[in-house]
Amino acid sequence: MEAQNRWVSTLRSCFPILTWLPGYNLTWLKMDVIAGLTVGLTAVPQALAYAEVAGLPVQFGLYSAFMGGFIYCIFGTSKDITLGPTAIMSLLCSSFIGGDPVFAVVLTLLCGIIQTAMALLRLGFLLDFISYPVIKGFTCAAAVTIGFGQVKCPLEMSLQTLDHNRLFFKNSVISLFWSASWVGDVVLGLSCLLFLLMLTFMKKSLSSIDDDASFLVRSARGLVWSLATVRNALVVIAATAVAYSAEVTGNHIFTLTGKTARGLPPFQAPPLSETTANGTMISFSEIAKDLGGGLAVIPLMGVLESIAIAKAFGSKNNYRIDANQELFAIGLTNILGSFVSAYPVTGSFGRTAVNSQTGVCTPAGGIITSVLVLLSLAFLMPLFFFIPKASLAAVIIMAVSPLLEYGVPMHIWRVKKLDLLPFAVTFLFSFWEVQYGIVAGVTVSALMLFHILARPKVKVSDDRVVVLEFDSGLSFPSSEHFSKLVYKHTLHASPARSLVLDCSQISSIDFTVIHELAELMKQLESRGAELVFSHLKPSVLQVLLLADLPSFKHTDTVDEALQLLTSTTHTTVNHSSDGQSQERTLML
Predict the structure, then answer these.
(1) In this structure, are strands 274-275 and 281-282 parallel, antiparallel, or unpaired?
(2) For residue range 4-58, what is the model confidence (pLDDT) as tens digits?
(3) 64 or 495, which is more confident?
(4) Membrane-crossing residues (predicted)?
(5) Is 92 exposed, middle or buried (0-12, 13-18, 19+ CB in 10 A)?
(6) What is the model's pTM?
(7) Which residues contact 585 (CB under 8 A, 6 or more apart)?
């Protein structure tokens, strides 16, 4: 029976769908359908817009938006999260694929393989080395870069996504004045932005309405909330209707998305090579080499973004997620996504928030969203020809604006000023190359961490016998620092002083430290002094006993160690004239 329970537990951990599917009911189905449709109406216009950010034809955004719903329903552990193209992932991909769909698909396949391998090898802990200031520095820089990349859209003949690897403030401003004559795109783009802003603020203001209001007020509130939730779809539909009306009357005043591939993407093995227009064959190894650092940055950032979102909503809605299972679900989504010409995907914060707010009960809501995307691909692609690029630019700008959190630097400054360094480095370097920003931020954070390891804070008590108490562990980076402290406070004193090492904060010890301790104990013994350990944890005590250190002594407390070291000390007590005792210690 116990073996059977373990087997069932293992099966459920591998296939989380088994934890909720047996109890699925009509109430859950109703809520999942509502949430899935709502998210789908948000996902379709966003997918079209994010494909532009990635430098790909718009249909590739939809190709990337449906596989996650099916895979995550089976393997995901969060009821709220939705997988698909995002602004940050699109920006990262644009840095490596150069607008080439073949490179995008190969990148998706390799990212999926890397993420799945990390899940199987339990390497999710690597994400812990990307600190919060680094993440916030990158997302703020990404918001600025993407936003400036779209400013030109309503003001030029075509949506020309800026080179997201450089900061072209100057070029953006010049083009702003150079192309301001394109009144149609300007007016439409600004109108879409204003409409999105209005609905966003209206939705936020709904929280101030009293729940005890009349039926009419509550009905109006529900209508406004519903419209505000699907505001992206409303804006794109309205803008498309306006553009279509202008086109059929012969007024070509808007820059349109143009011709798109029709129908569903074929399910086929991802291309592992490419033949260019001039007949040059690019092999798989050459593609992988050209992708370079993207094979490290994109898988890690994709997983980091998704798991962070899943944890946030899990905490909000009182459930826990399995980070390694999330890693596996994302990796498998990308692997299978490469068979339908998708580019790398991750969790979307905006769509996940919509999913949660509309009351989704299980990951099955993602299936409804995916079906809606597939229906759009099957029947609506001809209509996408008339979608104005200015409306898609407005959707992108509104989607990335929450990423620019102005209060983060001040909050970091109040908590720990030094953490502004990795934030600033990541933020600034991301305008040069986005992957360099992440690498630079992680490097600075790692150096700060290494400094803490190599120079831990030590409390020194010096009263005839020196007591050293580390506020963190003692490992090989700090062994030299430890030796210098011992020489300074004991061996360089005249006469040499004995030492008590308070190990209450030391949970592990390595061979380098053992070797250094052996040398120090020999030096102390030759000078007539001793080293006594106190507060040793069982694991550390075991290692020290196996090391066979010379004259090894240990006590349970520091006081006992001090008594042990002063047992050879003769103490006489004199009474002062005022009746108080004075202690005088003489070393024998």
Answers:
(1) antiparallel
(2) 778 878 888 889 999 999 999 999 999 999 889 988 888 898 899 899 889 999 9
(3) 64
(4) 33-53, 60-77, 89-113, 125-148, 176-202, 223-246, 291-314, 326-345, 365-385, 392-414, 434-454
(5) buried
(6) 0.73
(7) 464, 566, 569, 570, 571
Residue 542 CA: distances (Å) to CA of 499, 516, 538:
21, 17, 6
Across 396-414, average pLDDT: 85
My answer on whether 419 and 480 are in the same domain is no
Specify whether 326 is located in the same domain as 470: no
> Any idea what the CATH number is for the domain that residue 483 is in?
3.30.750.24
Per the domain annotation, does 239 fall within a domain?
A: yes
In terms of DSSP H, where are the helices of 527-569? Answer: 538-547, 558-565
Question: Considering only CA atoms, which of 338, 371, 333, 340 is closest in space to residue 265?
Answer: 340
Q: What is the rounded average pLDDT of the residues 242-266?
A: 85
Half-sphere exposure (Cβ direction) of 321: Cα atoms closer than 13 Å: 29
What letter represents residue 389's amino acid?
A: K
Mean predicted confidence (pLDDT) in 52-77: 93
| Rounded-to-integer distance, Cα 67 and Cα 340, Å | 8
Q: What is the mean pLDDT of residues 269-291?
A: 89
First to last CA, the chain: 70
Q: Are 92 and 373 in contact (CB under 8 A)?
A: no
Beta carbons within 10 angstroms of residue 330's beta carbon: 34
Judgement on whether residues 468 and 542 belong to the same structural domain of the protein: yes
Report the pLDDT value the prediction gives residue 212, as an integer from 0 to 100: 61
Q: How many domains would you assign to the chain?
A: 3
In which domain, by residue range, is 442 found?
406-454
Q: Is residue 36 part of a domain?
A: yes
Give residues with Cβ within 8 angstroms of 163, minimum separation 6.
Answer: none
For the purposes of burial, counting CB atoms within 10 Å of the CB of 25, is it exposed (0-12), middle (13-18) or buried (19 or more)? exposed
Is pLDDT at 313 greater than 90 in this prediction? no
pLDDT tier at 179, thresholds 50, 70, 90? very low
What's the Cα-to-Cα distance from 174 to each of 149, 162, 168, 180, 394, rounded to whole Å?
13, 13, 10, 10, 20
Say how far apart CA 428 and CA 446 lie, in whole Å: 18
Judge contact between 112 and 332, C-beta under 8 A. Answer: yes
What are 517's two structure tokens? 């301790």
User: What pLDDT is stored for residue 436 in this prediction?
Assistant: 83
Please state the three-class secondary structure of 78-144 as a single string.
Answer: CCCCCEECCHHHHHHHHHHHCCCHHHHHHHHHHHHHHHHHHHHCCCHHHHHHCCHHHHHHHHHHHHH
- Closest alpha carbon to 326 in 350, 344, 310, 349: 310
